[in-house]
Amino acid sequence: MSKVVASAIAGALSLTSAGGLTMVQALDRDTVTFSVDGVSQQAKVKPGTVKQALAQQGITVGPHDDVQPSLDSEIHDGQVITVNYGRRVVVTIDGKKVVRWTTAKNVAEVLAQLNQSDPDNLVSVSRSLDISRAGLSFSMQTAKDVTVTIGGKAQKVTAVGTVADALKAAKVEVDSSDVVNPGLGTPLADGMKITLTMVDQKSQKRRVAVPFSTKKVEDSSLPKGEIKVITKGVNGINEETWTVVFKDGKKVSEKKVSSKVVNAPVTQVIKVGTKTASSSSPSTRSSSDPVTRGITCLASTYGEGDGTAGGSTASGETFDPSAFTAASKTLPLGSTIRVTNVSNGRTVTVRINDRGPYVGGRCLDLSTAAMNAIAPGQGLVTVRYS
Fold first, then answer.
1. Where are the domains of the chain?
2. Tell me, what DSSP letter sits at residue 329?
């Protein structure tokens, strides 16, 4: 070797590079790839352990960090050292706090480690959110399988949150009047049974008849017990407003809230005779002309002693046994007939103001006064009337 070449090699070995390493020092280094939280970079490091190599690069690790290979492993040229920093994550699941150190880089990875990857679960942060070395706190509500019953029909629903959320998941709109059990704000639990009773209130208009009243005016010119209609009564009409409550389509209650008069009733005005027949009246004398033509039948009597006195008759007037009146099933109310006892010829004039008798074979029911006029003391007699 020439002196020139030897001198050049010696000079090269003694020269320092711009970084301060001599060529001899450079030849005594290993090339190592450092992957820190997924970011890779190559560097020349002195032979030694992984811990020493990390220290040469200023990479500090703690007890919760994951280092591969282990810190006491010897490195070699071409070595790859992987460091994943640990993060402190606090997850509140359905109100219960879980603290975990993890090397997961985002929320989705943490949920996978906790076996909580169900897409129906409600997470307070984005599942793709990266987790910094400072750590992260978030909350999660797990999905619950519940049964929602509406109008007797049940359906299975998976939902997160409260009863209100389950009904929303069931695509049910709840009105303020509806009844929900348990309440809308109740947290969901697996297997919970939710019942919704749909309450509807409807307003209804109804027209009802209002009975007319009767005004009686005494008239001394009419025979006692005789009545005469002066003004015919007419029922009125009221329009009522009702609130009707339905539960699941079935009516459960109703309440009248207002009423207004559509047509007022017309009061019926009648004249009631008060004139008493004299004892010499032709209608009560036995010598009065008897009825020779007409209908022959059995007549009974009612009034004194049978509890009918003072009661209401079919004509609307009060029954007076001392008046000359009679009841018939067919003759017009207010009409007058002459009645003759066929056995003695006595005749009396009576006014029809009631209905009856309702015993077979009988055609008339005479007041006590009328019966005494033609058959004193008797209760049943054969008569002829016209």
1. 26-84, 87-141, 144-197, 202-272, 277-385
2. S
Reported pTM = 0.45
Kindly give the confidence (pLDDT) of every residue in the chain, 386 residues in length, as a single tens digit, with 9 standing for 90 and above: 333 333 333 343 344 333 444 444 455 789 999 999 889 999 999 999 999 999 999 999 999 999 999 999 999 999 999 999 999 999 999 889 999 999 999 999 999 999 998 898 989 999 999 999 999 999 999 989 999 998 888 999 999 989 999 999 888 888 888 899 999 999 998 999 999 998 998 999 999 999 988 898 888 887 776 777 788 889 999 999 999 999 888 898 999 999 999 999 999 898 888 887 543 344 443 335 677 778 899 999 998 778 888 888 999 899 999 899 999 999 999 999 999 999 999 999 999 999 999 888 899 999 998 999 899 989 999 999 98
- CATH number of this structure's domain 87-141, picked from the four choices 3.10.290.10, 3.30.300.130, 3.40.50.300, 3.10.20.30: 3.10.20.30
278: amino acid identity, one letter = S
Q: How many other C-beta atoms can be found within 10 angstroms of the C-beta atom of residue 142? A: 14
Tell me the CATH number for domain 202-272: 2.20.230.10
The strand pair at 136-141 and 122-123 is best described as antiparallel
Host H or E run for residue 341: strand 336-341
C-alpha–C-alpha distance, residues 360 and 335, integer Å = 23
Q: Number of helices (H) and strands (E), helices first, in the chain?
A: 6, 24
Fold classification of 26-84 is: Ubiquitin-like (UB roll) (3.10.20)
